[in-house]
Amino acid sequence: MQKLWFGLFGIIITTGAFAADLCVRNDAMVVALNPDYNGTLQSYNAVGVKMWSVVFPYGTVTGIAADANDCTEPGCVAADQNLNPAYGTGQRCYCKMLRPALSPWIFVGRSFWAECTRNCGYAAADLANFRRWLFSSINTVD
């Protein structure tokens, strides 16, 4: 009888381990991006590729910025997903999160010249509505 119990126990344990192996990808990372927490603008670079970085209690979010001429509503996704962050092409500022997850381009507002990168950083750090648009758009990347 004892062998039967050990056999059943062994089957239950190995079945659970096998199921977890099927459901969880190796080296998977889980990050809770909470839009209700403000962050601190760590850095932004307005020359060349326009990078920005914001530190939150749960980690650092980094991204890029680009200027364009489409999209006029805050939070909308840019029609042109291939915006080039190295060149300014308009007065409307778009932000894209690169880490910890990739987002599409999100419209943050009007900008003038190199100010777009700073706008993205400050919006990600200080504006809860913008963070909601940015974080909730992660699953919409093609």
Total number of strands: 5
- Binned strand content: 15-25%
- Main sheet strand line-up: 1-2-3-4-5
Nearest-integer average pLDDT: 75
Output the radius of gyration: 21 Å
Number of helices: 3
Q: Give me the secondary-structure category.
A: alpha+beta
Order of helices and strands: HEEEEEHH
Please tell me what the overall shape is.
elongated
The biggest sheet, with number of strands, parallel, antiparallel or mixed sense and barrel status, is: 5 strands, antiparallel
Q: What share of residues is helical? A: 25-40%
Distance between the termini: 56 Å
Low-confidence segments: none
Give the topology.
Layout: H1 2-23, E1 40-44, E2 51-56, E3 59-68, E4 92-99, E5 106-110, H2 115-126, H3 128-136
Antiparallel strand pairs: 1-2, 2-3, 3-4, 4-5
Textual characterization of the structure:
Helices cover 30% and strands 24% of the residues. Strands 1-2-3-4-5 form a five-stranded antiparallel β-sheet, with helices on one face. It has 142 residues and is of the alpha+beta class. Helix 2 (115-126) crosses helix 3 (128-136). It is built from three helices and five strands; from the N terminus they run αβββββαα. The model has no long low-confidence stretch (mean pLDDT 75).
Characteristics:
3 helices, alpha+beta, five-stranded antiparallel sheet, 142 residues, 5 strands
